[in-house]
Design a protein that fits this description.
The chain has about 450 residues and is α/β, with parallel strands linked by helices. It has helices at about 1-15, 20-35, 40-50, 60-70, 130-135, 160-180, 220-230, 285-300, 325-330, 360-365, 370-375, 410-415, 425-445; strands spanning about 80-100, 100, 105, 120-125, 145-150, 185-190, 215, 235-260, 265-275, 310-315, 335-345, 350-355, 380, 400-405. Helix 3 (about 40-50) crosses helix 8 and helix 8 packs across helix 13.
């Protein structure tokens, strides 16, 4: 039976992949090394020990030092910093009470502060922007705290689709509520799980009539408050969200390169973002992506046969608060010949495949590799996009890709105090590392770096 399965696999791969037996051996070695040594997991423990790494913070600066020192101890040809200007916003005291009952709340990133004594005002609950507009036009919003009780939809199989559907209330909620005279805005945390950990995330004041404070209630607090507002709609809430905006400051991307043996001018990028939100260690978001990238490079550089093309690891700064690192990288590398850019920014859970942003012909060539990944549980090879950081070079004719781990638990911890090292499983993390190394090896070996169709 095993001989028959191997024969079918080789036939499926076709003449272009005549070395499929060798490829399976290489992949087996990559997964074995990752799972046995667990180097990425050890690096993640070191990174998480620094603590939160919000852009502009001392933690972010320490993470830059860690990334530089760690990759200087790896066999790269060059390791360097790339200066980036980032925001420096710091949260302060956070408190919400309704009829004396405390509610778990956190400020959204970039929120202005409430007055020192906080805000006491009635709460108007809305389910969506349409309801906000209807109530606002009737004068029912002015002087109140708007509470967007819009849950992430459970029926979406891919939780990122549910997140994309709901995130507009976090991003634009305060700006929209200010149009009708609201004094503050609260959103239901973007999580599929009912617990008492509020989830932060960035917001915008673009087109806001007035900049009003914006925060997030935990899903449990949202459920509790929603039920009680039905009986007591005029009961005021006390809300305190303190924050300080220190303007812009200097940080860095951390970059390392191993030059290609045949086409050193062609660059293959792999990366994750070094910053995290300030409520936790940022283990899944995106410490996992950083060590996935470093670990994949580590595995590939240990092989006797070098890559044909230059491999560049980029630890981007400030994905969470405005993509400053990715934009600066794109600006400073506009003359580089990027042929591949892979991002890991969906957590350290068990990998299920990759998504790509490329032309149809190239995607079909990459999909020929799918049978090689099936023994490792990867089956998704889709054209549903790549990632926020690598998308900044989307006009470079490069293949853009993103690792796609299992997402069912990701939004349990995303942007919350639960995103800690203990929430990461070593084997699942290392499977992601090996998978990234394997796809880079295959794309490089079979020269799947064609110009994209416009």
């Amino acid at each position: 039976m095993k001989i028959l399965q191997s024969f079918i696999l080789c036939c499926f791969l076709g003449g272009m992949y005549a070395q499929s037996a060798s490829d399976r051996e290489v992949m087996r070695d990559l997964y074995t090394e990752a799972l046995e040594k667990q180097q990425s997991y050890r690096w993640l423990e070191e990174l998480c020990a620094i603590g939160p790494r919000l852009a502009g913070s001392d933690g972010a600066a320490e993470a830059v030092k860690w990334g530089l020192a760690t990759m200087n101890n790896m066999p790269f040809d060059t390791v360097y910093l790339q200066e980036v200007e980032v925001p420096h916003w710091v949260r302060g005291r956070e408190e919400a009470q309704w009829k004396g009952f405390p509610l778990a709340v956190t400020a959204l990133g970039g929120s202005v502060s409430t007055p020192v004594d906080g805000i006491t005002a009635p709460v108007v609950q809305v389910n969506d922007f349409d309801e906000l507009d209807s109530l606002g036009e009737l004068g029912e919003v002015e002087g109140k705290i708007v509470f967007y009780n819009y849950p992430m939809k459970q029926h979406y199989i891919k939780t990122f689709h549910a997140y994309s559907d709901a995130v507009k209330y976090r991003w634009m909620g305060a700006a929209r509520a200010s149009e009708y005279g609201a004094v503050a805005s609260l959103v239901r945390s973007l999580s599929n799980r009912i617990d008492d950990f509020p989830h932060t995330g960035t917001m915008t004041y673009k087109d806001a009539a007035v900049e009003i404070p914006g925060g997030a209630l935990s899903t449990m607090a949202s459920e509790w408050l929603s039920e009680r507002l039905k009986q007591h709609p005029d009961e005021p809430m006390f809300l305190r969200l303190e924050s300080t905006d220190y303007g812009r400051t200097v940080s860095h991307n951390v970059i390392a390169e191993r030059y290609g043996a045949e086409y050193p001018e062609q660059v293959m990028v792999v990366g994750g973002h070094l910053d995290s939100w300030d409520l936790a260690d940022g283990a899944h978001d995106d410490g996992a992506g950083c060590v996935h990238s470093m670990g994949a490079a580590h595995l590939l550089m240990q092989r006797d046969e070098p890559l044909k093309r230059t491999l560049r690891v980029v630890l981007y700064m400030n994905e969470e608060f405005g993509l400053d690192g990715a934009r600066k990288y794109a600006e400073l590398t506009k003359d580089d010949k990027h042929v591949l850019a892979i991002e890991s920014d969906a957590g350290g859970y068990i990998p299920r495949g990759f998504s790509f942003d490329t032309d149809t012909t190239t995607l079909e060539r990459i999909r020929k590799f799918q049978p090689l990944f099936l023994p490792y549980g990867l089956f998704e090879f889709t054209n549903q996009g790549s990632g926020a950081d690598v998308s900044q070079i989307q006009d470079r004719h490069a293949i853009l890709g993103g690792l796609r781990p299992e997402s069912q638990r990701y939004f349990d911890v995303h942007h919350a105090a639960t995103d800690v090292f203990a929430a990461v499983n070593a084997r699942e993390l290392e499977m992601g590392t090996a998978s990234i190394a394997a796809i880079i090896y295959l794309i490089d070996t079979y020269d799947i770096t064609l110009p994209r169709e416009k």
